[in-house]
Amino acid sequence: MSSNLKYSKTHEWVDFIAPNRVRIGLSDYAQESMGDLVFVTLPEVGQEVSVGDVIGDVESVKAVSDLYSPVSGVVVAVNEDLEDQPELINEEPYSAWLFEIDQVTDQVELLDQAAYEAFCEEEG
Amino acid sequence: METKKTPLYNRHVELGGKIVDFAGYLLPIQYPAGILAEHRAVREAAGVFDVSHMGEVILNGPNALADLNRIMANDFSKLRIGRMRYTPMCYDDGGTVDDLVVARLSEDGWFLVVNASNKDKDLAWIKEHISPDTELSDVSEHIGVLALQGPNSQAIMERLADATLLPTGLFRFSSGVEVSFDGAEPVTCMISQSGYTGEHGYELYCPIEDTVRLWDMVLAAGEDLGLIPCGLGARDTLRLEAGLPLYGHELSADITPLEAGLSWTIRFDKEKGFIGATAMQERYTAEPRNLVALKVSGRGIVRPEQNLLIGDTQVGFTLSGTMSPTLGYAIATALVTVPVAEVEQASADGTLAVDVRGRRIAVEVTELPFYKRG
Description:
The complex is a heterodimer of chains A (about 120) and B (about 375). Chain A has helices spanning about 30-35, 80-85, 85-90, 115-124; strands at about 5, 10-20, 20-25, 35-40, 50, 55-60, 65-70, 70-80, 100-105. Chain A is of the alpha+beta class. Chain A has a single domain (about 5-125), classed as CATH 2.40.50.100. In chain A, the strands form two sheets. A six-stranded antiparallel beta sheet of chain A has the order 1-2-3-9-8-5. In chain A, a hairpin with a 4-residue loop joins strand 1 (about 5) and strand 2 (about 10-20). Chain A is globular and about 35 Å long. Among the domains of chain B are: about 5-45 and about 140-165 and about 175-240, Probable tRNA modification gtpase trme, domain 1 (Gyrase A, domain 2, 2-Layer Sandwich), CATH 3.30.1360; about 290-370, Beta Barrel (Elongation Factor Tu (Ef-tu), domain 3). Chain B contains nine helices and 20 strands. Chain B has helices at about 10-15, 35-45, 65-70, 120-130, 155-160, 210-220, 230-240, 275-285, 340-350, and strands at about 5, 20, 25-30, 45-50, 55-60, 85-90, 95-105, 110-115, 135-140, 145-150, 175-180, 185-195, 200-205, 225-230, 290-295, 305-310, 315-325, 330-335, 350-355, 360-365. In chain B, helix 2 (about 35-45) crosses helix 7 (about 230-240) and helix 5 crosses helix 6. The N and C termini of chain B lie far apart (about 45 Å). The interface of A and B includes residues 39 and 64 of A.
């Protein structure tokens, strides 16, 4: 787990790569509890999103799980590699980012690493 | 309901299994290798499953054969000792109580293997319908069961037991086989050539107190042949690829075996008929429903209980659905309420789809099984 990342309670990691721009992925805890991922649906580039919107999903062999946007803004990039290789999320959850959002105006409560670990422990 | 543990619970935890409550039993959905790797191991090498949660029932008595023929859809009149047969068991209205395997132990002795989730209602149903002099005993708490499955399962079994004592055909079994590895004290097993994966394989029934030793010996014997422990997740993807029904999905109190496409297991020609026979035929004539196999051609995965559509019209619903690890695309089964020919036409026209959480995903009709071993 990378220490400069923030985490949502819906298990996305959020990396502020510029003052108003974030890169978002799925936490190690989330990929581990879902198991082998076999399908990813990502948002469209250009899509405007608000905090808490369902903007995609990830599917394991057994289950589907929604992806929530932890911020409001505009989708400016999606990681298309994941469409053919969703297993990259299992292999390297902190490199296999899902999408980037720019012009961030709002965000959900984001936890630092220690708080997120405690949250997962409680949930687990 | 109190959750139960099989004798292998501690082994599952030690092996890093992800434990879930399945039919009241704490069992691993997967081990650290993951569902895909476990699935692949069974298709390409071997996997071993703890299926000790399954229920086992013994019927005994001179009228047991007649009882079975009346209670079950299949016909056991000509089943020889040492053979087993799959059968649905139906309610009076033709809906399914359970699907099970019946093995003939002796002239009057029968061994039934039932789904864990259905065991209590199965026992009640069977008790209600057997002759007064047919003895029924639930031996589930005394028997541990392992399923050893995959192309290397035979080589592994030959390291564990005298090869000449192993069953030599599908749905045959051998009783009293001593299973041992590396000079260890043997475990006496009933071994059938059977399984739920579409691969060559065996199921080993042992005294419950010997289950852990048997598990350890099997794993040790198969270690260099690619054998790994497998959980419920892979068991489900393997059985669906092989086109095998799962109670609660393809079969239920609402779905008759006739609708589920299991006509090969239903013997309407039995002299004295069987429970549910007439009702099931009447239902099928009045309001026919049929199981179809679907290949997902669009992007996504179809899951159970989603609507099957032709254009915007609902024509059925899905029963099972998963990503097929072997085939590399998603597969599903569905029950359709319109003629199958219409569904096939829509499939050819490209208008057949499943509503997956508000998204239309294109599907095509295909044949069962999805996967057949080469």
